[in-house]
Amino acid sequence: DNDSELLIDYESEDDLDASSEKTVDIDERSDDERGCILKPKIYYCSRTHSQLAQIAQELCKSVHEESTTMVTLGSRQTLCINESVRKLKSVGLMNEKCLDLQKESSKVKKSDHGYSKKKNSKCPFLRRDGVEKLADEVLYVTLDVLHLGTAVRACPYYACRKSVAAADIVLMPYQMFFNRATRNTCGLSLSECVVIVDEAHNLLETIESMYRFEI
């Protein structure tokens, strides 16, 4: 069960996502980089996605539900709805496959009659208009992002990241916030924010595991 794991593999995603911004036609820069007025935010960090889901459920029961926007961030392993990517299981392999699909948007293939034609192999869920629409909607349907993404045929992974700028509350695993490269890629500004760390007694162990190297 991936939700029960203490650590979720984001390290391999950092290096890949640095190049993904060159292939994804979606503006994922931070508020600072875009020159936007920063909106005060609450960042809620927990160990696992299952714990984040529980927090999201409780927040949805509060009296502030209708006036508060919220998004839960995660890896492609959690948010991808492309079956050709999901079946790979490994986060690293999923990242590579996702980026490959973005680069292979138009391949030339020779037909039986000698004519060349273009074969579209781009991810069908990575339509800019669809992702932007989903980014607006996920702020109000945090508990059903995967089903909504499937219904509108738009990528929840990139939509959730794009919705960070408009969210009042951003839920995420420890690794996304305490890894600088991942934090910057997701547009998580440290200005005008309140950071809440759930089960903070586990934080040192988590950070140690994130930056530990084996020889």
Automatic annotation (TrEMBL):
GO CC annotation: nucleus
Any Pfam family matching the protein: DEAD_2
SMART domains in the record: DEXDc2
One of the GO BP terms on file: establishment of sister chromatid cohesion
Domain Helicase ATP-binding, residue spans: 1-215
Domain of life: Eukaryota
GO MF term set: ATP binding; DNA binding; DNA helicase activity; hydrolase activity, acting on acid anhydrides, in phosphorus-containing anhydrides
Keywords for this protein: ATP-binding, Hydrolase, Nucleotide-binding
This protein's name: DEAD2 domain protein
Biological classification of the source: Eukaryota, Metazoa, Ecdysozoa, Nematoda, Enoplea
